[in-house]
Amino acid sequence: MRLSDRKNKKIIFIILAILSIVTTVLCYFNSxxxxxxxxxxxxxINLHVQTLNGILQALQFAFLIVIIIVDYKKGLKxxxxxxxxxxxxxxxxxxxxxxxxxxxxxxNCIIVAIVLVIAHRQFRESEKAEKTDRVTGLFNRYxxxxxxxxxxxxxxxxxxxxxxxDGFLNVNATLGRTYGDQVLQIVAKRITDxxxxxxxxxxxxxxxxxxxxxxIDDCEAFVQTIIDSIEEKxxxxxxxxxxxxxxxxHVGIADCKYGELNGTILMKYAxxxxxxxxxxxxxxxxxxxxxxxxxxxxxxxxxxxxxEALDNNYFYLVYQPQFVIQDHSLRGFxxxxxxxxxxxxxxxPGDFIEVAEQSDLIVAIDEYVIRKAMEEYRDVVIxxxxxxxxxxxxxxxxxxxxxxxxxxxxLVEEYDFPASCLEIEITEYSISRSIIHxxxxxxxxRENGIHVALDDFGTGYTSLSQLLKLPVDLLKIDxxxxxxxxxxxxxxxxVKAIIYMGHLMxxxxxxxGIEDEIQLExxxxxxxxxxxxxxxxxxxxxxxxxxxxxx
Length: 551
Ligand code: C2E
Ligand code: MG
Ligand code: MG
Fold this sequence. Notes:
Blueprint: H1 6-34, E1 39-42, E2 45-48, H2 49-70, H3 72-97, H4 103-130, H5 141-151, E3 159-166, H6 168-175, H7 177-195, E4 199-203, E5 208-213, H8 219-230, E6 234-238, E7 241-245, E8 248-255, H9 263-279, E9 285-287, H10 290-312, E10 315-324, E11 330-340, E12 346-347, H11 349-358, H12 361-383, E13 389-393, H13 396-399, H14 404-415, E14 422-427, H15 428-433, H16 435-447, E15 451-457, H17 464-469, E16 474-477, H18 479-483, H19 489-504, E17 508-512, H20 517-525, E18 530-532, H21 542-545
Parallel strand pairs: 8-9, 11-13, 13-14, 14-15, 15-16, 16-17, 17-18
Antiparallel strand pairs: 1-2, 3-5, 3-8, 4-5, 6-7, 10-11, 10-18, 11-12
Helix pairs in contact: 1-2, 1-3, 2-3, 3-4, 5-9, 6-7, 7-8, 11-12, 12-14, 14-16
The structure holds ligand C2E and magnesium ion (2 copies).
One magnesium ion binds at residues 455-456, 476, 478, 512.
């Protein structure tokens, strides 16, 4: 039984109210009618009114303590009211009749009132500590979420904003956390100084602040003044020597009119706007609008569909063969995910992978794919004498996060899958996200015999110098470079240069999206090692893919 349940709380309040009425009445009658020697007969037992009153009062205080613990705000209010009644109920008859038999009750009331005041202060202090960020002294994320969720119904205008501080992690990494904390405090002060009484400022995550603003017409101009002040030079001192630090800020804003009176949605929209701002090259401020609204709505629906698909098995895998270009022998298969809804609708990975990457759903998808592919192919690759490769795509988020390689190695061991038959495909985009973890993960994977391929190569995220540092086994030339290779000499030269560079780096090179014999012939001439494309094989279900295996 949970005392904090609404129904149970109500029962406790009712019991408390009845006890209070009875004790107050008894107090009054005790003094006014029975005097010190009043006796009542209850179930054949003679009880002094005073004794009965004492028992009831003790019970009442016990219930009062319970109700304060489960709901201290209401409990305290109720407690004060009760005590006031009881106090009067015991004091008035004493004054009017001159009989002091209810004096212990009056003193009890005074003592409990003092205890309530102390409890009130304690609860207020701990509630404040719970809602405060220790570093900056601002209200924290819980307080922000509570405020938005509880107050939104009363808002007619206003907006919430997330402020992301860029460059803070650099301060932490180069100067240490003490200096990082100082930066957070200085930024907090600058924001509060600029907003004054026009907004409430919160410190939410690591280097993120939030605002609740009301009655401001031009929210973008208002936020711009905050960004300007954050981006001014920060001077820290190490051994009395000044160190200049610069941070910048991106802001996502959501007007409360988009919240549909739901705080959780409004915060999500502000978050989406912040993500837009972070990804934008030109704008540091993004205001959630109809266009983003439509995209976000689609995204939210797709997210819940992905969750449903994971729970109900709407996903399955298809495998596309890869061949050695010179002799058409099988190199292996690329694993590609498919989503099929119960009504038969197919949703392309091009649509849902990006959405999954923006939430954490991609982690579950990637794990599903790796498990399923190993489960389906384990016996086949072993029977073939471990001679071909099963390649799986992983998201940039995964390969760029600490511990990813170890997770893959654990899975390989769990399935007893030959490590040398597994290939992890990463995209150029992952390198631009987190080069340090990506590099580390690649090294660990390769040390354990797992191949690493660089997918969508040539789509433009990676600088050449970064690329040369990456110890991958295979470069996958993107279909977009292959598409007009027949007509463009420049494209041919470009692809030739990539193949040459790949070989210099000690990698093999595969061309993706080869659809006809002419493209195939050109790739062969350019000394590309492998080929993957509709010309020699489309993605197909596991059973069909076995026809390429000759087993
Ligand atoms: P990708 O990894 O570059 O996969 C190659 C895409 O090109 C596949 O599309 C494949 O069907 C298509 N393709 C291959 N050869 C040809 C061809 O000759 N002509 C044409 N027109 N297309 C060809 P698909 O399966 O729709 O996948 C699209 C993208 O979605 C993939 O690009 C990959 O980035 C992502 N993806 C697919 N499956 C997974 C997965 O299991 N996990 C993750 N994280 N991403 C996946
Ligand atoms: Mg791929
Ligand atoms: Mg690709």
